[in-house]
Design goal:
The protein is of the alpha+beta class. Helix 5 crosses helix 12.
C-alpha cells in the first residue's frame, strides 16, 4: 500500500515492541502483526488510517508512521502524538529500573524494554477499563473487538480495514439491548452508555488531565460503574498516572505473593503498603512483576 504521507520518528529507549504486545495484546481497534501496528485515529472528526512499522532495536527504537489519506500538517502532528501516547513513549524505563533497584534487577533484565501500552485517548481508556472489570484479559479483548467491529467506523484501504474506536455520540445513542449484542454484560452496557452520556453533557476528559491524581480518582469514582479497581486502572491506561496501582487486582496480588512474600496470595493492603517504596512508578513496576509472574511462575 502506498501511503499519502510517511514519517519516521525516534522512540524513547529502551523499547521492546514485540515483548510489549506479546505480554498484553493491544485492544481493538489496534492490531499488531508482522512487526506493524495499525488502526484508524479520529482527528478533527476525520478517520485517518495509520500503520506503524517498527525499526531499529531495543536500545535504538524507531517507528515509521504511514497515513493512507490526505492529512494536514496539524492532523499529522496529532496522529504522531496519539501514536506516542499509545506506545507509552513518555515513560522513562531507565528511571523505572533505577527505582526497582538491584533487588528486582533480574526481572528488569528478563523483561528489558517492556512497556505497558496505553489508550490513545482518555475516553477509550476508561471504556477499556470498564470492559476489563472482573474477567480475564482474553475475554475482555474479545468483548472490545466485538464492540469495535459492530459500533466503530472504519476505512478500507486495498481490502484492509482500519477501525476506529466508537465515539461517545455513537455509544450514547445505542440501546442497552444493542450494546449487549456486543458481548457486554448488562451492567457494563449501562456503564458504557452512562459514561458516553456524561461526555455529551459536557464532561471533558481532557480537562481532567489537569487535575491532581487524587482529584482525578475522585471524579472517576463518582461516575456510574467505576469503583476503586476500575479507577486505578483508568488512571494508568487512560491518564498516564504511573503512581496508580490497582492493588485489588487478583493477578497482581498473586504476583506479589509469589515473588515478594513467598505465599499463595497477598492482600490488597500488603500490595499497596509494599509498593509505596516505588513512589511515582508503582504502576509500571507492579506491571513488571505481573508479567514476570504470568510468563515464568504462574504454572509452577
Amino acid at each position: 500500500m502506498k501511503p499519502y504521507k510517511s514519517i519516521e520518528i525516534k522512540l524513547r529507549p529502551p523499547f521492546n515492541i514485540s515483548l510489549t504486545f506479546e505480554a498484553t495484546p493491544p485492544a481493538y481497534p489496534s492490531i499488531f502483526e508482522d512487526n506493524c501496528l495499525y488502526r484508524a485515529f479520529r482527528v478533527e472528526g476525520k478517520l485517518i488510517p495509520t500503520m506503524i512499522t517498527f525499526k531499529g532495536n531495543v536500545d535504538h527504537p524507531r517507528a515509521e508512521i504511514k497515513v493512507f489519506d490526505e492529512v494536514s500538517e496539524r492532523q499529522l502532528r496529532e496522529v504522531i502524538s496519539l501514536v506516542k501516547r499509545h506506545l507509552c513513549d513518555d515513560l522513562d524505563l531507565k528511571e523505572v529500573y533505577k527505582t526497582m533497584g538491584e533487588g528486582f534487577s533480574w526481572i528488569s533484565k528478563e523483561l528489558y524494554g517492556l512497556k505497558p501500552w496505553l489508550a490513545p485517548t482518555p475516553f477509550e481508556g476508561i471504556i477499556l477499563s470498564i470492559a476489563f472489570q472482573q474477567i480475564s484479559i482474553k475475554a475482555a479483548l474479545s468483548i472490545i473487538k466485538s464492540l469495535v467491529e459492530q459500533v466503530g467506523d472504519y476505512v478500507e484501504v486495498e481490502g484492509l480495514r482500519f477501525y476506529s474506536f466508537p465515539t461517545p455520540e455513537k455509544l450514547a445513542s445505542m440501546s442497552i439491548e444493542d450494546l449487549r449484542k456486543c458481548k457486554l454484560s448488562l451492567n457494563k452496557a449501562r456503564y458504557v452508555k452512562a459514561l458516553s452520556q456524561e461526555v455529551l453533557k459536557g464532561l471533558s476528559l481532557y480537562k481532567l488531565e489537569t487535575l491532581s491524581t487524587r482529584e482525578l480518582y475522585d471524579v472517576l469514582t463518582s461516575l456510574k460503574g467505576i469503583g476503586k479497581w476500575t479507577a486505578e486502572l483508568a488512571l494508568l491506561i487512560a491518564f498516564k498516572r504511573w503512581e496508580s496501582l490497582p492493588s485489588d487486582d487478583l493477578g497482581i496480588r498473586k504476583a506479589f505473593a509469589k515473588i515478594i512474600f513467598n505465599k499463595p496470595i497477598a492482600s490488597a493492603q500488603e500490595v499497596a503498603t509494599y509498593a509505596e517504596r516505588w513512589g511515582m512508578y508503582k504502576g509500571p513496576i507492579a506491571y513488571y512483576l505481573l508479567i514476570y509472574y504470568e510468563k515464568f511462575l504462574r504454572h509452577q
